[in-house]
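Journal club side-thread
Mid-discussion, someone asked how the predicted structure for our own chain would compare to the paper's figures. Pasting it here so we can look after the session.
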Amino acid sequence: QVHLVESGGGLVQPGGSLRLSCAYSGDISNLDYMGWHRQTPGEQRELVALVTSSGVITYVHSIEDRFTLSRDYAKNMLYLQMNSLKPEDTAVYYCHAREKTPIGYEYDYWGQGTQVTVTG
């Protein structure tokens, strides 16, 4: 089991910044990758960015260069620095972890989500 707890969401004006944090704990020895997703009402949850166990980071195109994902292995923290926020970034942001066991089973874990609202 892996436990994820997000924090850092809030209300911000267009052009502003927020940093989301995700504290992870539990059995993290088999984490394959971690990342951030977001979801707006009536829409499917979509990937924002992820980092593999080897440290490769991938962003979706709509993020451009505005967001930065980072992981602090010593503190068991995952971050998403969001700059130049736009109203279309408004969503609930979820921390996600994919576990892959040595025998090939895969499990997905999600945090409770944190609301980000960009409005002027």
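Post-session note: The first strand starts at residue 2 and ends at 7.
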